[in-house]
Write a structure and sequence with these properties.
- The chain has one domain: Jelly Rolls, CATH 2.60.120.10.
- The chain is about 0% helix and about 55% strand.
- The mean pLDDT is about 95.
- The protein has a 7-stranded mixed sheet, with no helix packed on it.
- The protein contains no helices and 22 strands.
- By secondary structure, the chain is mostly beta strands.
């Protein structure tokens, strides 16, 4: 039976550390809501604003697929694998933490606030060799279509992770209707509006509102005005090996 749940932006957890202002879709750090621990294998969806010349100092991760999507500004990334890179708005970054990796993420600008989504997904394989990648979305983005930015395959469009998940983004002009068809009908869908307003399943969603679906094969998305959004299709049960 189809189930859908709407999550209003105002109901997210929040934190203000001065240099970091964060909104939490799921329990994280000092924010805990037993009803919002995760959605299937989607464990973290943080909406972060990082002050100029500030950021996260070197810290460790393991056995997590970490996806970062800059929305404004750029990230300066360094890690224990020897990678050093700038990741700009219009790009997507992935790090498979696997058996263990340390990294830092900083805002290199002295004037511009960095805004980003940080997303964690439980992997389907434990203790894999850590891996880093980033891709530009410039040649991937398609107006008024769902364009894929992440998949389980290294030979597919966008970045890839150790999980049977697919991420798409959309930039719709007003009054655009499209159907998202799941890659795997046993998966669930978690969609977040970045900007604009959408109508989905009879619900009107504003910026940073989200909606989730279980037991569906398709989701009809209609833009009310010019809209930008993220669609995350993920397994609903952990399948670690």
């Amino acid at each position: 039976m189809k189930t859908s749940i709407v999550y209003k932006a105002k109901d997210r957890g929040s934190a203000n550390y001065g240099w970091l202002k964060a909104k939490y879709s799921f329990s994280f750090s000092n924010y805990h809501d037993p009803k919002k621990i995760h959605f299937g294998v989607l464990r973290v969806l943080n909406d972060d604003s990082i002050a100029p010349a500030m950021g996260f100092d070197t810290h460790p991760h393991d056995n997590m697929e970490i996806i970062t999507i800059p929305l404004e500004g750029q990230i300066e990334h360094t890690d224990s694998m020897g990678n050093s890179a700038l990741v700009r708005a219009g790009e997507v970054q992935v790090m498979s933490a696997g058996s263990g990796v340390s990294h830092s993420e900083r805002n290199p600008s002295d004037t511009e606030t960095l805004k980003l989504f940080q997303i964690w997904v439980f992997p389907n394989k434990k203790n894999v060799e850590p891996r880093y990648d980033q891709v530009s979305l410039q040649d991937i983005e398609k107006a008024n279509e769902f364009y894929q930015i992440l998949s389980p395959s290294p030979n597919d469009q966008g970045v890839w992770i150790h999980q049977d998940a697919w991420f798409h983004m959309g930039r719709f002009e007003p009054n655009t209707e499209r159907i998202y068809t799941l890659k795997n009908k046993t998966n669930g869908v978690y969609l977040m509006v970045i900007d604009g307003e959408l109508e989905i399943d009879g619900q009107f969603l504003s910026p940073r509102d989200a909606i989730s679906f279980n037991d569906v094969e398709q989701v009809l998305v209609k833009s009310i005005n010019k809209s930008y959004f993220l669609v995350m299709e993920v397994p609903m049960i952990q399948n670690n090996k």
